[in-house]
Amino acid sequence: MNKSTEIFISFARVGALTFGGGYAMLPILRKEVIDIKGWISEEQMMDSYAIAQVSPGIIAVNTSALIGFQLHGKKGAVSAALGQVFPSIVIITLIAAFLQQAFLIPVVAQMFAAIRIAVAVLIISTAITLLKKGIIDLFSAVIFSLALIAILGFSISPVYIVIASALSGFFYKALGGKRT
């Protein structure tokens, strides 16, 4: 099997199992590309995810394309992005064509309510993993604390927080900070 096809299939598997968007995708993506395939490191995945968050577009597709690019250049980026969206396109098309009225059935509505709860757990799990990997020294703890206060206390846009954090990291390192 060629590399592009292998990437497409792996990311299609992630896309087929992801409910709830980019945040919920992370544990599934991590298992596929780090644990099963061993294609990238935890740090590479976190970096790709961070870049995807501040880039225009869908986080899941952006993250997939960035990882795919690391694996196989432009072909890998396209294969990963298409693999990520392919299952959703098929599922949404089937729902639109055949199951439009299904959401009015109480048992189907309850199934999706339960899925929302499971997605919340996946998001919390991802947040805990990111915290454990991201807060490694006093500098990162300060950035985390200030960002949390800015978002929760003052409703500052995450865009400004990401920009301020990036600039802080740049100046910290430029001024001789020890974090790598």
Describe this structure in words.
- This protein is mostly helical.
- The chain has a domain of 99 residues.
- The chain is 81% helix and 0% strand.
- It contains seven helices and no strands.
- The longest helix is centred in the middle third of the chain and has 40 residues.
- The radius of gyration is 19 Å and the shape is globular.
- The model has no long low-confidence stretch (mean pLDDT 88).
Instruction: Classify the secondary structure makeup into a structural class.
Output: mainly alpha
Q: Count of DSSP helices?
A: 7
Q: Point out poorly predicted stretches.
A: none
Helix content: over 70%
Strand content: under 5%
Give the CA-based shape. globular
Biggest sheet features? none
Number of strands: 0
Integer average pLDDT:
88
CA distance, first residue to last residue:
37 Å
Question: What would the keywords be for this entry?
Answer:
180 residues, mainly alpha, 0% strand
Write the layout of secondary structure elements.
Elements (H helix, E strand, L loop, with lengths): L2 H15 L4 H15 L5 H12 L5 H40 L7 H29 L3 H17 L3 H17 L6
Helix pairs in contact: 1-2, 1-4, 2-5, 3-4, 6-7
Q: TL;DR?
A:
Helix content is 81%, strand content 0%. It has seven helices and no strands.
